[in-house]
Write a structure and sequence with these properties.
heterotrimer; A alpha+beta; B mainly alpha; C alpha+beta; B: mainly alpha; flat; C: alpha+beta; 18 helices; 21 strands
């Protein structure tokens, strides 16, 4: 072999071949991928926003979650106000209470009823201090022969009838409206976030820790272990939840949020366990597992490092999709008596309370539902990103 | 494999018995009984009533009496619908509940799965976002809200359907929608996510590279594996749907058995509680077994038994 | 050929008229569509204990008398006679009284029905009411302390029913309108044990204006005019379609769509609007009271000033407004609707005991609290208010909790329990302040006041005052002025001792569409369509 046929590589060329990028661990790589996933970042921002409101939201209002004002009950977030005189505006609630409001939408006080005429359908209200006698005529479209484009008119101190409303303003006192005892829905939704988020977080944690591992162990072991483990799951799934909750209530008594979490957590993980078992049953027969076993990787390692990460897709999707179910199960359990006691409320409780007045006061359901939906969407987007980030098959580096 | 499933079948029966047993004893350990009333019945009369229905026998005797009855398919008399047997209650209500449930299951399979697949194939396109959004809405809006809004708008304001009951074919739309809403959304998203995973696999790339038609790639190769989580989810869900939802049946005034799941507990109607629980358990256990059989069909590699060393 | 065709054509044109007439006949049946609310546990009058069963029984059966809006009118008994000492009541049964299967209804049917209802072996949940009937031997037999045969009721002949009472009892005759005392036919009852006969159109034999023609579990039932009813000529409705929809909002939507003519339950959020706008919305007083029990065995409630302060510090008017059911703010324990011996309303006459409907009593409450040693609530222990799971109870509890906090500075926790657990806890006295509710079963204030007698099974606060006991005993044994004087005095004592805080009195709300006329109800709350008609 002729020596001239070989050349020394220069240092410049050598350094070109070096791997310049650090080798990333699984988690570092996952975080890198997550950051780049735009939708996931939006989701993360959403979650942080909700957390922020949960912690600081109630401080934005002068009301606490339990302050009641029975005169101002059931006011919507948007008020149709009528101008009766200079700087004198009123709002009529659906249950025929008359409230004086400021032109900007701040609720001032309730104007007491002076006289009711049920036949002619005229209610008379008297504001002593302002010397106003206000007659409300709501006979239109109710009494025969009185059809009109409007449902009611006001007349002050015997003056002409005012049929057109002045304008629609936002309810400054209660941005989200008030509930049946005049509490601020805004504060209650923010407050409810604390409870619902705690429930969501704990439920998801239980899902992850208990459900995922239980299901993977059952599937990996197979045979009798699998049969027995899953039958236990079957029993847990089939016993009536109501009886179970009552039993806990009787045995332990209500110690607030924690007893509810125990009740919820103890049955919540079964769905995840089943899901993961299905995935692992399929995965464990694949070649890479066989390879890992041949290499002598420990059972624990195979499950936690190989099987679960490859099943991460359905796990994350299920975790996020199950959160509303946790929220509503929590409200059901609290309603029975185990969990937060009135007047504390979670989103689920607020939604439940709003139901009886749904047809008359839809906004009472709207805001808690929106909160749940918004949280869900954020977790969903974040979850999608997490799934892509944690999927070992997408790993680069 | 066949031996395995025979073993499983026997275990399933055992499970139903276990569920019945646990429920029986739990039920008797909470305060109150079938004769607890707002105006408590005087003790002497309570004693007479309990004697009449053998509720004063030692618990273990009551248990064996009940189980004996169960094996002869006699579920005893209802305590809250005096004079009617549990068998009659279930016979009257179950067909109605099951039919509505069946329609819901059909909807979920026929709509949920294809929508999920399409969404996965058109990932990040408008249709995908639309489906994701609807699915999120579907899981966040609880069935009672959906039901109440439906009755108020479609039945009340628009007068397109009867406001309650199942008198006409169109009246099934509301209950089926309310019942299936959550599961439909869950299945759509699960299918989509599962499909996405599978589509990224090497063997799919291989199949495509080999020139296989797209339909064949999706239909034959991708779907089978993607369906495992969906099948897992659907199993118990079908059992739950077929035994009805308390909320949906109450709001739509459907005379099925879904209501009994909650009402019987509040009323401490022991025999009805046992009746519906055993019914649900039977369905559920059957579906679980079916799911495992399906696993083996979908993915022939799946083995249930321990490896022989 | 043309002629034949023409004839065929003309006859074809006439066909619709044949059917039109047939259709018209179908339409000429008077039908009432009514939502009952829930599927009744039972409609066997002897076994029933619930209001939904009572509604059906009041239309399907009839007792010795019928009570409509407080007025007693003859039912199966065309007249009755009370002996001078008040201890013997003789009823004359109508000779034309019949069962819906055409057979004769006699006094023996009443004897059978009553003895059957009393017999502990039957397991009637309402047999405790016999204690208040004062019928000789009835209470003892109901509690298993005496033979059923010793009950003081007999039928010397087919058309005479004689009842022997321990003491003269003013309200006895009106009590006979109650479902528990309605007759049942022995052969029917034995054909379908445990009340199964009453829900089976083949077996159900009744004596009222309507009879049962169909029953579908969980769905509804149908009542049709009973041709053998003694007053059938005055029954105008032919068919009543009864449904069991218990979701009030669904029923209300159906009512608005015209599917129902009558509802006996209305969603509370609609009520204020209905009160103002709808003339067909009715509110009737239900003779009962919603209250909170003090656990009188606890030290914290020993000072009557504290109890009175708490009772004064709540604004009952506002609470009733929020509940939106037309409820009446309570003062004493006896609600409006009872008439005393002089025709005055007991509630109005009893007075206010220094309480107010609204928040006018707050100043006095604050003063009392300070006198008791807790100025502005400082130092008063935190307590727990217990109620059973329900939207309504939660609402009232939240309101009073806030009112006590704002007005008196005292704090309490709210706890709710599932209702059977709650019953257990409350009757065992394992609470500090617990919600209570009571509705009377017979038209006398005693039906309410009697529960606070020492040792009474329903005396949840465990209140004991021998003076009170003596007065109620006296009321039980007397009639007329003596009876009511004792009751007024008893309530005076109750309102001075305040073992409970009364909040409001119950109401029944009904919606009836304009074509439905002449319906009525008993004071105790059972609907009566016996003389109603529908004018479409």
């Amino acid at each position: 072999m002729n020596a001239e046929k070989f050349e020394f590589v220069s240092s410049g060329e050598r350094s070109d071949q070096e791997i310049l990028r650090k080798s990333l661990t699984y988690w570092q790589d996952a975080w890198r991928r997550l950051k780049n996933h735009k939708l996931a970042m939006v989701g993360l921002a959403g979650v942080i926003l909700i957390l922020f409101f949960a912690v600081f939201g109630p401080m934005l209002s002068r009301f606490s979650y339990s302050d009641q004002n029975l005169d101002f009950s059931n006011t919507p977030p948007r008020l149709k106000i009528y101008q009766l005189a200079d700087d004198y505006y009123v709002f009529l609630t659906r249950d025929y209470k008359l409230l004086r409001v400021s032109g900007k939408g701040e609720i001032l006080y309730r104007i007491p009823i002076e006289h009711k005429d049920p036949v002619k359908k005229i209610y008379t209200f008297k504001d002593e201090k302002q010397n106003m006698l206000i007659a409300l005529d709501f006979s239109y479209n109710i009494l025969p022969g009185k059809k009109a484009d409007y449902d009611y008119t006001f007349s002050v101190n015997g003056g002409p009838e005012i049929a057109a409303h002045h304008k629609k303003v936002f309810n400054r006192t209660y941005p989200f409206g008030s509930d049946v005892v005049g509490r601020s829905l805004f504060v209650r939704v923010m407050y409810g976030a604390r409870i619902s988020l705690t429930v969501a977080f704990v439920a998801s944690l239980v899902n992850l820790l208990v459900g995922v591992f239980y299901g993977s162990i059952a599937a990996y072991e197979g045979g009798k272990t699998d049969i027995v483990m899953m039958r236990f799951v079957d029993i847990l799934n089939s016993i009536p939840l109501l009886i179970y909750v009552i039993l806990i209530m009787v045995l332990v008594g209500n110690r607030g949020l924690w007893t509810m979490i125990i009740a919820l957590g103890s049955v919540y993980w079964v769905q995840m366990a089943r899901l993961v078992r299905g995935q692992v049953l399929s995965l464990k027969e694949q070649e890479f597992i066989l390879a890992a076993r041949a290499l002598g990787v420990s059972k624990h390692h195979i499950i936690s490092r190989h099987l679960i990460p490859n099943a991460i897709g359905p796990i994350i999707i299920s975790m996020t999709m199950m959160i509303p179910s946790a929220v509503f199960t929590e409200s059901f359990i609290s309603f029975i008596g185990l969990g937060v006691s009135a007047p504390m409320a979670s989103w689920g409780t607020l939604a439940n309370d709003a139901l009886s007045g749904l047809l008359s006061y839809p906004y009472q359901l709207f805001f808690p539902s929106m909160a749940i939906a918004f949280t869900m969407l954020s977790f969903n987007f974040l979850g999608d990103g997490l799934r892509d980030a944690l999927d070992p098959r997408l790993r680069k580096g | 494999m066949k031996n395995y499933f025979l073993k499983r079948f026997i275990y399933s029966l055992l499970t139903i018995i276990l569920i019945a047993t646990v429920t029986f004893f739990m039920m008797h350990s909470i305060p109150g009984g079938p004769f607890t009333r707002e105006k408590p019945v005087p003790p002497e009369i309570l004693k007479a009533l309990n004697e009449k229905y053998h509720l004063d026998d030692p618990l273990i005797i009551q248990y064996f009496d009940y189980m004996k009855g169960l094996f002869t398919f006699d579920m005893g008399p209802s305590f809250s619908k005096i004079g009617t047997s549990v068998n009659d209650l279930i016979k009257a209500g179950f067909p109605i509940t099951a039919f509505v449930g069946f329609l819901a299951v059909l909807l979920i399979i026929i709509l949920g799965v294809p929508v999920g697949i399409i969404s996965a194939l058109r990932q990040n396109r408008p249709i995908d976002y639309f489906v994701m959004f609807m699915a999120t809405l579907g899981v966040t809006i609880p069935s009672f809200v959906l039901a109440t809004l439906y009755i108020y708008f479609i039945a009340g304001k628009l007068d397109l359907v009867p406001p309650f009951g199942l008198s006409t074919p169109v009246s099934y739309i509301g209950p089926v929608l309310a019942l299936s809403g959550y599961s439909l959304s869950f299945v759509a998203r699960l299918t989509r996510s599962s499909m996405l995973e599978v589509l990224r696999q090497d063997y799919i790339r291989t199949a495509r590279a080999n020139g296989l038609k797209e339909l064949s790639v999706i239909g034959k190769h991708a779907m089978k594996n993607a369906l495992i989580p969906v099948v897992t989810y659907l199993g118990p869900t079908i059992a739950a749907l077929m035994t009805g939802s308390f909320v949906v049946e109450r709001i739509f005034a459907i005379p099925g058995i879904g209501r009994y799941f909650v009402e019987s507990v509040s009323n401490r109607d022991y025999t009805v509680i046992m009746g519906v629980t055993v019914l649900y358990a039977a369905f559920y256990v059957m579906m679980i077994l079916l799911v495992d059989i399906l696993y083996a069909v979908i993915d022939p590699r799946i083995k249930f038994e321990k490896e022989s060393n | 050929m043309k002629k034949v065709l023409l004839m065929i054509l003309v006859s074809l044109l006439l066909v619709p008229f044949v059917f039109a007439n047939g259709g018209k006949e179908e339409e000429s049946k008077m039908v009432l569509n009514w939502n009952l609310g829930a599927d009744p546990k039972t409609i066997d009058p002897g076994l029933n204990g619930a209001s939904d069963g009572a509604h059906i029984d009041n239309n399907m059966f009839e007792g010795l008398v019928r009570e409509q809006a407080g007025k007693i009118i003859p039912g199966i008994a065309e007249s009755w006679n009370i002996s001078d000492d008040g201890k013997t009541v003789t009823f004359k049964i109508r000779k034309d009284a019949k069962w819906s299967d055409g057979s004769n209804l006699t006094a023996h049917d009443f004897v059978y029905a009553w003895k059957r209802a009393i017999d502990p072996a039957t397991g009637s949940e309402y047999s405790w009411i016999w204690e208040y009937t004062n019928v000789v031997g009835a209470m003892e037999a109901a509690y298993g302390d005496g033979p059923v045969d010793a009950v003081g009721v007999e039928a010397p002949d087919d058309y005479t029913l004689v009842v022997h009472l321990k003491n003269p009892t003013d309200y006895f005759v009106s009590l006979m309108s109650f479902f528990h005392f309605m007759p049942v036919k022995q052969s029917s009852v034995e054909a379908g044990p445990d009340g199964a006969w009453a829900k089976d159109p083949e077996l159900a034999v009744s004596d009222g204006p309507y009879r049962l023609t169909s029953y579908t579990i969980g769905d509804g039932l149908t009542l049709e005019k009973n041709p053998y009813y003694w007053n059938a000529d005055n029954v105008k409705i032919d068919v009543i379609n009864v449904k069991f929809i218990d979701e009030a909002s669904t029923a209300y939507t159906a009512y608005k769509s015209g599917e129902f003519d009558f509802l006996n339950d209305v969603p509370p959020s609609e009520v204020p609007r209905l009160i103002a706008e709808d003339p067909e919305f009715y509110i009737f007083p239900l003779l009962g009271t919603y209250y909170y029990n003090f656990n009188m065995n606890l030290d914290m409630w020993k000072d009557v000033r504290v109890r009175r302060a708490m009772a004064l510090a709540i604004d009952r008017e506002k609470i009733c407004e929020v509940l939106a059911g037309g409820q009446v703010p309570a003062v004493g324990f006896v609600p409006p609707g009872f008439v005393d011996n002089e025709g005055r309303d007991f509630f109005e006459t009893a007075g206010t005991y220094g309480f107010y409907k609204d928040s006018s009593g707050v100043a006095e409450a604050k003063k009392l609290m300070a006198e008791a040693g807790y100025p502005d609530g400082k130092g008063f222990p935190k307590f727990t208010l217990l109620y059973n799971t329900s939207e309504g109870h939660k609402l009232v509890a939240e309101m009073v909790q806030e009112m006590w906090k704002t007005n008196l500075g005292i704090e309490c926790d709210l706890e709710n329990q599932e209702w059977a657990v709650f019953q257990d806890t409350r009757s065992q006295g394992d609470y500090e302040l617990a919600r209570g509710g009571w509705i009377t079963d017979f038209l006398d204030p005693m039906g309410l006041l009697a529960i606070f007698v020492t040792g009474n099974a329903y005396n949840d606060p465990k209140y004991s005052n021998p003076e009170y006991d003596a007065l109620l005993d006296k009321a039980n044994k007397t009639t007329g002025k003596e009876h009511y004087d004792a009751l007024y005095a008893a309530q005076d004592i109750l309102m001075k001792d305040l073992p409970v805080i009364t909040v409001y009195h119950y109401t029944d709300t009904y919606l009836s569409s304009p074509p439905v006329k002449n319906w009525t109800r008993s004071q105790l709350g059972a609907l009566d369509f016996s003389s109603a008609y529908v004018e479409r």
